[in-house]
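Thanks for the sequence, V.! I ran Leucine-binding protein domain-containing protein right away. Repeating your input here for the record:
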Amino acid sequence: MRIWNFKTFTVILALLFCFGTLGVVFAQEKEPLLVGSIWDQVGFGGQIGQTCYRGSQLAVDLVNKAGGIFGRKVEYINIDGQSELDVISGALKENKSF
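Predicted structure:
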C-alpha cells in the first residue's frame, strides 16, 4: 500500500511538472512567418502583378485573422520586379529572406 502511494505521488508530481512547464513554452512570443513574392507592379507584367499582389495580401490577411499558422502571424513581403530580370535577380541577392 505504501509503495503504491509513493508511485502514485511520483507520477502525479511528474505530470504536474510536465504540464506546468508547458505554459512557459507556449507563452513565449512567436516570430512571424515570412512569406515573400515577386510580383511586377510596373512594366509588361504590371497589370497582372498588381492583381496577384492584392490576392496574395488578401490571403495573408485571412490567415492572420484566423489566428495565423500554428499560432504564428504571417508577414508578407513583396518585391516589385518591374518586369526586368536584372531587378529581380538583384533584389533576391539583397534580400536573404527569400
